Amino acid sequence: MAASKQAQLREEISKIPSWLRRPIGKASEIYTVQRIIKQRQIHTICEEGRCPNRGECYANQTATFLLMGLTCTRACAFCQVDKGHAPMPLDLEEPQKIADAVKLLGLRYVVLTSVARDDLSDQGAGHFVKTMEAIRQLNPLTQIEVLTPDFWGGPCVGEAGQRQRIQEIVAAKPACYNHNIETVRRLTPPVRRGAKYDRSLSVLQVVKEIDPSIPTKSGLMLGHGETVDEVIEAMADLRKINCDRLTIGQYMRPSLEHLPVQKYWNPEEFTELGKTAEKMGFSHVRSGALVRSSYHAGEE
């Protein structure tokens, strides 16, 4: 069985097109970040998600921190992060540890994301705010973008609970509020188990209702079998709720246990989708095979 899986993995790797292969970046810059986050027992999605752009982002003084542990209470079929119903207790020192790391690394733009924590009464919204406050205390010039879960689960389920948690984070004035719809409506059930397409749209809609001045952002991950028309429909749905910014990238299968790639979209297709998105009114668009939700985040 092991030999069969190895052969399957080799075959899968051989199918990856040339435009998805790139050098990881300067080893010294990557090592510096890895050393600092390991010493503080904190995490970045750059490392946990094996992002192909992490070397470039580190060089541009940008990083995306993963809050509240490495175990997610959701079970999305595309995601590298571990799943489970019993995550570790919150590290109450994590906000300060991250603030220290931001200062040591001289980061000018930070993205804060997290695993879904349906086990917590506030879904972790308060932890986002505490981390933002700690970063600003030590790094007043650093801009902070948030990439949050949908804040739907937990003891207080429903629109009221979701709105309360989002409002708490919006009140902390992030530079941008990001929540990814990830895929098109038809493919949401198999790709994003535990999430719902309209529920994700509602996150961004609520942000704009509470504070229209905060830019909102979302991302699509292509390669699950979506059509061009479905992608355009998803972009139109985002514009209907005044989503400002958009990233479009290629899904890369993390392991044989994850969903297989149905299609590798080529660079020309990404370029055309990017042009379409700009015509639809998105103020900032990043569309390319290696684009991820935090790619060039500090350049808006």
Can you describe what's shown?
By secondary structure, this protein is of the alpha/beta class. It has helices spanning 2-15, 27-39, 45-48, 54-59, 94-105, 125-138, 159-171, 188-191, 197-210, 228-240, 267-280; strands at residues 62-67, 71-72, 82-83, 109-114, 143-147, 176-178, 216-222, 245-250, 284-287. The strands form 2 sheets. It has a 7-stranded parallel sheet with strand order 1-4-5-6-7-8-9. Strands 2-3 form a two-stranded parallel ribbon. β5, α7 and β6 (176-178) form a beta-alpha-beta unit. α2 packs antiparallel against α5 and α5 runs parallel beside α6. The chain starts with a helix and ends in a 13-residue tail after the last strand. The mean pLDDT is 86.
Protein traits:
single chain; seven-stranded parallel beta sheet; two-stranded parallel ribbon; alpha/beta; 300 residues
List the helices and strands and how they pair.
Blueprint: H1 2-15, H2 27-39, H3 45-48, H4 54-59, E1 62-67, E2 71-72, E3 82-83, H5 94-105, E4 109-114, H6 125-138, E5 143-147, H7 159-171, E6 176-178, H8 188-191, H9 197-210, E7 216-222, H10 228-240, E8 245-250, H11 267-280, E9 284-287
Helix pairs in contact: 2-5, 5-6, 6-7, 7-9, 10-11
Instruction: Strand order, main sheet: write it out.
Output: 1-4-5-6-7-8-9
The level of helicity is: 40-55%
The description of the largest β-sheet is:
7 strands, parallel
Percent of residues in β-strands: 5-15%
Number of continuous helical runs: 11
Order of helices and strands: HHHHEEEHEHEHEHHEHEHE
Shape descriptor reads globular
Structural class: alpha/beta
| Low-confidence residue ranges | none
- Overall pLDDT score: 86
Rg (C-alpha, Å): 18 Å
Q: Tally of extended strands?
A: 9
Instruction: Note the gap between the termini.
Output: 48 Å
